Each structure stands twice: as C-alpha cells, then as structure tokens.
C-alpha cells in the first residue's frame, strides 16, 4: 500500500509485531459498513463518480459475503483488516477500489470501526444485563419472605430476606447499565473524515457519514478524533465495575453452596464433581466468574497504561487497544450469561438459612429497639443492657429467645414477656418496614416494581 516509498519488504519479525489482522479481522462488518457510508458520501459530494461508488459498494458486499462464508483469504502482509479489505476490493473491481481511500486514513477508519464495534457490543451487553436483572428479580419475588442471616464482617448481623439480598444486585446492575448508557452516549460521535490527523482538503460531508452510521454527530476536532480511546476506557471502566459486582455475588454463591453454610443448592447443571472425592459438588462457574474479573480489570489497566504517555495524534501503540477490549467485553458477556443461569438455577435451603439467621444473636438489635420503644431507654443504654443479656445467653449456650424471662429481668426488671415477639427472625424482618428495608412486604413490592419496569423497557 505504500510501495512508492519502499524498495524492500519488512523483516519477518517486523511483520509479525506489526500485523493486527489476527485479531482485528473481528472488525470486518464495521469496516465494511464504514466504507459503504464513506463511498456513498464521496459520490454524493461529487468526489468520486456514481459508477465508482456503485462498484465499490457492490465489491464490498461481495467481500462481506466471502468473509461470512469463510472463503476470504486474510493476509498478514496486508497488516490489518482495513488493508486486507481494501486490497481485495481493488482485486475484485479494479482501479475504482483505489478511490475508496480518498479523504480518509486508517487512523479515522480504525477509530470509527472500533467505536461501531464497542457500540454494538454495549447494546448486546445491555440486553444481557437486563436479563440478569430479570433473573434476580424473579428469584427475589419467590423468596421475598425467605429469611437468611445478613452479615457485616461476615459475622451474623441481622436477619434479612433472600429476596432483599438478591435485589441489592438488581440495584447494582441498574447503576452498571446507567454507566453503560452514559458511555454509549458519549462515544456516539463519528471520527470518519478526520483523515490522518488534520482533516482533509476534499469537500466531504461528515454529517452525512455520521448519520448513515447511526452516530449523533461528527467529532469536532480531528486530532482528538484519531487519538481518543476514552470511549474504550469508559466501556472498560463500566465492565470492570460490573465484573466486580458479579464477582461479589459469585463469591457469595461459593460461600452459600459450601457444606458448612448449605444455604443454597446449585443443580447438576451448574456444578462439577471431583475426580477423587466422590462427595464433591463444586461451584466452578461461580469461581470462574469471580476469576474472570481479573481479565476485565486487567484490560482496563492495560488501555489506561497504553494511552497515558502518547503525544497527539495517532501512534501505533493504539493498535494495542483491541485485544484487551475484545476479550474484556466478551468475558463480561460470558460472565453475565453464566451468572443469570446460576441465579435461575439455584434453590435456597430455607431451613438452613433460617437456622443460621437465628444464630449469632441476630435479633439483639430488635431487643435493644424494644427497650427503647417500650421502656424509653436511651439507645446507648439499651445497647448496654442488651449486651449483658446476650452475654448471659452466651454463657449458658442459649439463643436469645431461649433465655428465660426471669434471667432477662435479672438484668432489666421492667422487661415483660412481650419481648419474645421481637426475638424471632420472622418478626425481626417483618418489622424492617422503613423505605429500602428488608420487610417481606417491601421486598415483594420492590421485586414487582423491578419486574414491571424491566418488562416495560
Ligand atoms: N491497525 C491499525 C490500528 O489498529 C490501524 C491504523 C493504522 N494507522 C497507521 N497510521 N499505521 O491501530
């Protein structure tokens, strides 16, 4: 493509480090779309003839069919997807193919292609996020009143419901989707026509190509347009945060399915066995979702590090944006699908959850609150009294509601038998009716609200 200036071919190792066709062939559909739009615009502006534009578009359609059919010969000598397609176009339609690159450079071409790819991928991911939210909300509705222990420091804290716990992830996912939509909105400007870095002397119509490719507008600064990869940084930031959310849930599934907890069971469909220990049921999918987070956050750090020292405008360093970007977003897609599958599959063991919820003096706060409400104790004093009651129960190995009234009265004489009502885990969760609290009625309403909202999207 630059034979005019060069007398001899590149060294073997130069070709190897330089070529990106091995991975950027994935941009073929976006590259052809961009070229179709560019050719139509060049003809509309009288920069190339209508016949040449028609030949180019015809040739590009044929190339797309070749690629789809798997008959296209990708060549490393032609470096990347852009040169591969352009060379084949000229092979197929003759000199008209050489007119396609008028008023264009690979710099604005690759920026356009990759934006289109990231945009398409974000749109697919958003649907997957939605499906994941639906899986969570459906399970939450079914378990709006299923009591489990809530933890802080992974120490039993207060009873909550399983539905409430799952809806926490629906909220996180909603924010992930907000970040996705934000990133999409900002990336939706078209770099095409920025040319190599300075714009072009041809009378092009950038609004036309931008509109044709579904962008909101053309980018306003040619140097920025060919140098910017923050559209990818934003997509990967969103992906990294979402992956961290998935990883936390994955970690919880690993804990919940462990024998000492036994809160949740995954069916055979989402479990693996051990080749030596016949009893094992391992939650490998959850572990892999947890682990794949490393690749996604790694890709974010990768692109940030690639870009941090680059002077304007394009530098070949920027070719390193793709593998990490492709991999991270594909990995997020896989993790989301696996997680939605696990959520639909898993069944909580309500008995084990409830038993654990009652352990660890989880209703101590309810007792303290009762002392405040009924005896008008200041909360700090109620906390102290409750602490002494918990200590008394612990000394005899009893749960709070197993301790006799007389033993409680020995610590605070004004306590009445009525106190036992607040010591059960069911009544504890039922009482948490503050907005956003874990009361089953709240959880049911929130799960329904989410399901309606998601269905109406
Ligand atoms: N394969 C290149 C990339 O992905 C395309 C742009 C090449 N531009 C250039 N001036 N060498 O970044």
TrEMBL record:
GO terms for molecular function: argininosuccinate lyase activity. One of its GO terms (cellular component) is cytosol. Residues 361-430 form the Argininosuccinate lyase C-terminal domain. Gene3D superfamilies: Fumarase/aspartase (C-terminal domain) (1.10.40.30), Fumarase/aspartase (Central domain) (1.20.200.10), Fumarase/aspartase (N-terminal domain) (1.10.275.10). One of its GO terms (biological process) is L-arginine biosynthetic process via ornithine. Transmembrane segments: none annotated. Residues 4-298 form the Fumarate lyase N-terminal domain. Keywords: Amino-acid biosynthesis, Arginine biosynthesis, Cytoplasm, Lyase. It is an enzyme of class 4 (lyase). It is found in: Cytoplasm. It catalyses: 2-(N(omega)-L-arginino)succinate = fumarate + L-arginine. Pfam families: ASL_C2 (PF14698), Lyase_1 (PF00206). The keyword Lyase applies. Pathway: Amino-acid biosynthesis; L-arginine biosynthesis; L-arginine from L-ornithine and carbamoyl phosphate: step 3/3. InterPro entries: Arg_succ_lyase_C (IPR029419), Argininosuccinate_lyase (IPR009049), Fumarase/histidase_N (IPR024083), Fumarate_lyase_CS (IPR020557), Fumarate_lyase_fam (IPR000362), Fumarate_lyase_N (IPR022761), L-Aspartase-like (IPR008948). Its EC number is 4.3.2.1. NCBIfam families: argH. Belongs to the lyase 1 family. Argininosuccinate lyase subfamily. This is Argininosuccinate lyase. It comes from Blastochloris tepida.
């Amino acid at each position: 493509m630059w034979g005019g200036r060069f007398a001899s071919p590149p060294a073997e190792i130069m070709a190897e480090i330089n070529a990106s066709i091995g991975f950027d062939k994935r941009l073929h559909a976006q590259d052809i779309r961009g070229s179709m739009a560019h050719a139509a615009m060049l003809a509309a502006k009288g920069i190339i003839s209508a016949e040449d534009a028609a030949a180019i578009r015809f040739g590009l359609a044929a190339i797309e069919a070749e690629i789809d059919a798997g008959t296209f010969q990708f060549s490393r000598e032609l470096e990347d997807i852009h040169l591969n397609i352009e060379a084949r176009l000229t092979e197929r339609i003759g000199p008209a193919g050489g007119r396609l690159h008028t008023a264009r450079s690979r710099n604005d071409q690759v920026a356009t292609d990759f934006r289109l790819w990231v945009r398409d991928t974000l749109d697919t991911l958003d649907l997957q996020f939605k499906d994941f939210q639906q899986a969570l909300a459906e399970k939450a509705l079914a378990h709006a009143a299923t009591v489990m222990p809530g933890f802080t420091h992974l120490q039993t804290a207060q009873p909550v419901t399983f539905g409430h716990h799952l809806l926490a992830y629906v909220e996180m996912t909603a924010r992930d989707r907000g970040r996705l939509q934000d990133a999409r909105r900002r990336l939706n400007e078209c770099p095409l026509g920025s040319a190599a870095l300075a714009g072009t002397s041809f009378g092009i119509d950038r609004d036309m190509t931008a509109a044709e490719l579904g962008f909101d507008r053309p980018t306003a600064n040619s140097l920025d347009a060919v140098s910017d990869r923050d559209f990818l940084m934003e997509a990967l930031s969103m992906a990294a945060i979402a992956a961290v959310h998935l990883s936390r849930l994955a970690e919880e599934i690993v804990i919940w399915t462990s024998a000492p907890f036994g809160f949740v069971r995954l069916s055979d469909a989402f479990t693996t066995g051990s080749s030596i220990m016949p009893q094992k049921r391992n939650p490998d999918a959850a572990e892999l979702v947890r682990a794949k987070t490393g690749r996604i956050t790694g890709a974010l750090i990768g692109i940030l590090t690639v870009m941090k020292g680059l002077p304007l405008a394009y530098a070949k360093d920027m070719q390193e944006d793709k593998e990490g970007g492709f991999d991270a977003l594909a990995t997020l897609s896989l993790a989301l699908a696996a997680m939605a599958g696990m959520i639909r599959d898993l069944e909580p063991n309500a008995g084990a959850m409830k038993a654990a919820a009652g352990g660890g003096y989880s209703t101590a706060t309810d007792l303290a609150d009762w002392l405040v409400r009924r005896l008008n104790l200041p909360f700090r004093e109620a906390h102290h009294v409750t602490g002494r009651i918990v200590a008394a129960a612990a000394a005899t190995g009893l749960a709070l509601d197993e301790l006799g009234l007389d033993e409680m009265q020995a610590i605070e004489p004004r306590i009445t038998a009525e106190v036992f009502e607040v010591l059960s885990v069911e009544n504890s969760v039922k009482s948490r009716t503050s907005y956003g609290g874990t009361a089953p009625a709240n959880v049911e309403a929130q799960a329904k609200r989410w399901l309606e909202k998601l269905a109406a999207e």
